[in-house]
Specification:
mainly beta; 4 helices; 16-stranded antiparallel barrel; Porin; about 350 residues
Length: about 350
């Protein structure tokens, strides 16, 4: 009996010691830089596409991303810091991309409070989360990050997220207005909702946005991603151009991706994006981006060709320079990006 008690005590002590020694703190991050040149315009006149990030010419910096997380099992915190042009364009100050605490209330329920990246769209801020290095128009016109409280529920193949937040990309709420969000998921397919009251004081996100994000494995090597979005109630572009309170944006994009080998893959993004409202002949753009992705250890090299062609863009001041510096509705670029993750 005494030997049994000793063995039980020793087993308990070893289990407790092992639990205490289990690492709870983790550090990760990324660094990215790129070279970009215009193929159809002089680099001296190149001002980038209308989408976010990667709008420099020649050699340019992306961002340094440092993520620290501390997990106690049921509770934890995440501090996600960014430095550089890409990060500065995406955050609302303080070099903070994300900063939140979470509580796993039960096996299928998690509460999160703080600043967290958007649940909207197919793409994200960090270049490691996207196949293409440049970003889409739908991602660029949707909310980047939110500050608030959200609840995630896992129900087998189904998932549900509900959120109460400040207006999008605002760290401190000084206006007393809030936004609400929801996400319904099933087997990797997501339907997203976001609503924010009209506020013309800072031309922030307005109205209701609905977004579908998903994809399908068509074979072991071929994946097709899909994103579609519709917004009504206006956005900064619509307000600035007087398109009315019922204006908004729409878009659809396909992301076919083919895995050639363990280290190399090819991906294409074809996107149609535009605005709706009054008048009806508002500008729209068709953007095609072909990206290669070669990975060696933690380094990923991405050569990328992109061409954007606008319809009726010149009527609203959306033009690019051609080889002679004259306005045209198309722009093509070549980009070579290097991304290191750790």
């Amino acid at each position: 009996m005494k030997k049994t008690l000793i063995l039980l005590f020793a087993s308990f002590a070893l289990a407790t010691f092992a639990q205490e020694e289990e690492p709870a703190l983790s550090i990760s991050g990324t660094v990215d830089a790129y070279f970009q040149t215009a193929l159809t315009a002089p680099d001296t006149d190149f001002a980038g596409f209308g989408s976010s990030f990667a709008d420099g010419s020649g050699f340019a910096l992306g961002m340094a991303n440092l993520i620290a997380s501390y997990d106690m099992g049921s509770t934890g915190v995440v501090a996600d810091l960014v430095f550089g042009p890409r990060g500065e364009a995406a955050i609302g100050g303080y070099n903070i991309n994300q900063l939140y605490a979470y509580w796993n209330v039960s096996e299928g329920t998690t509460l999160t409070m703080g600043r967290f990246n958007t649940y909207f769209g197919y793409e994200v801020i960090s270049p490691t989360g996207n196949f293409n290095y440049s970003t889409s128009y739908m991602f660029s016109n949707g909310p980047f990050s939110m500050v608030g409280l959200k609840a995630d529920f896992s129900l087998g193949d189904f998932s549900l997220m509900l959120a109460l937040m400040n207006d999008t990309d605002i760290n401190e709420n000084t206006k007393g207005s809030y936004s609400v969000g929801a996400q319904v998921g099933y087997s990797g397919q997501y339907l997203n909702f976001y609503y924010q009251d009209y506020d013309d004081s800072d031309l922030s996100f307005l109205g209701l946005a609905i977004d579908y994000t998903g994809g399908f494995d068509l074979s072991d090597s071929f994946f097709l991603g899909i994103n579609a979005a519709y917004n009504i109630g206006g956005y900064s572009y619509e307000v600035e151009n007087g398109l009315g309170e019922d204006s908004g944006y729409y878009g659809v994009a396909l992301y076919p991706q083919y895995t050639v080998s363990e280290s190399f893959a090819l991906g294409l993004r074809g996107e149609l994006f535009g605005w709706h409202g009054d008048p009806e002949d508002l500008p729209s753009v068709f953007s095609t981006t072909l990206t290669g992705s070669y990975t060696f250890e933690n380094l990923t090299i991405k050569p990328e060709l992109r061409m954007d062609t606008w319809s009726n863009g010149d009527a609203y001041g959306i033009t690019y320079p051609d080889a002679d510096g004259l306005p045209t509705d198309s722009l093509a670029t070549f980009t070579l990006a290097a991304i290191y993750s750790f």
